[in-house]
Amino acid sequence: MENTPQLIVMLTYNDMTVENAVSVFESCKNTDCKFFGMKEEPLPPEEMKKLYSRMKECGKTTALEVVAYTEEECLKGAQLGAMCGCDILMGTIFSDAVNDFCKEHGMKYMPFVGKVYDRPSVLDGDIDDIIEEAKGYIAKGAYGIDLLGYRYTGDAAELNRRLVKGLDAPVCIAGSVNSYERLDELKDASPWAFTIGSAFFDNDFDDNIPAAVQKVYDYMKD
């Protein structure tokens, strides 16, 4: 899928939503970035709902990425996403129950693929197997795939390229996009989107988060 990869700003650090997510979003709301998201932990659900509502007021598309590995926890994350009115549910280990729930509640479902474990997440598995697994989820009606490309224990750039090329569906490269070298690799792979969270808080692109968000957004458009 040839396109300019979309930046999804994650208000997260080490796969956890930052406590000052509200103020960080307010500082970034006037950037050109249209996609913002959080993880399912540790903010209280009502606080998350309020912030997601604020994102929508500002014209943003919203995502919740759930780092969970049992069907019960994944379904709980999907229910949280629905309560918050999220547009996209990312993450979770694929299950028919979560897939059906997302369809019923109008959320675009982008599950993890491959063997995913730990927090921050790690991705393992054979590239061919990961691609076939992803095709199976799309065949079942998932909107797209949440690929932890730079958390992969093998050749991340090869995995990213081959999965995007081999899948006729949106792919989001999530996690550890923390350098211009990796942004260049993403331009080459041309996924639908990618996430950045921790790298903004680690000042990998600029020591001012809104400036960093805009820099990355502009860089991907060039």
Task: Give short descriptive properties of this protein.
alpha/beta, two-stranded antiparallel ribbon, globular
Give an overview in words.
The chain is built from 9 helices and 12 strands. The chain has one domain (6-221): Aldolase class I (TIM Barrel, Alpha-Beta Barrel), CATH 3.20.20.70. It has an 8-stranded parallel β-sheet with strand order 7-6-5-4-1-12-11-10. Strands 2-3 form a two-stranded antiparallel sheet. The chain is 42% helix and 19% strand. It has helices at residues 21-28, 45-57, 71-83, 96-104, 127-139, 156-166, 180-189, 198-201, 209-221; strands spanning 6-10, 12-13, 16-17, 35-39, 61-66, 88-91, 108-110, 115-117, 122-124, 145-147, 171-173, 193-196. The protein is an alpha/beta fold.
Write the layout of secondary structure elements.
Elements: E1 6-10, E2 12-13, E3 16-17, H1 21-28, E4 35-39, H2 45-57, E5 61-66, H3 71-83, E6 88-91, H4 96-104, E7 108-110, E8 115-117, E9 122-124, H5 127-139, E10 145-147, H6 156-166, E11 171-173, H7 180-189, E12 193-196, H8 198-201, H9 209-221
Parallel strand pairs: 1-4, 1-12, 4-5, 5-6, 6-7, 10-11, 11-12
Antiparallel strand pairs: 2-3, 8-9
Helix pairs in contact: 3-4, 5-6, 6-7
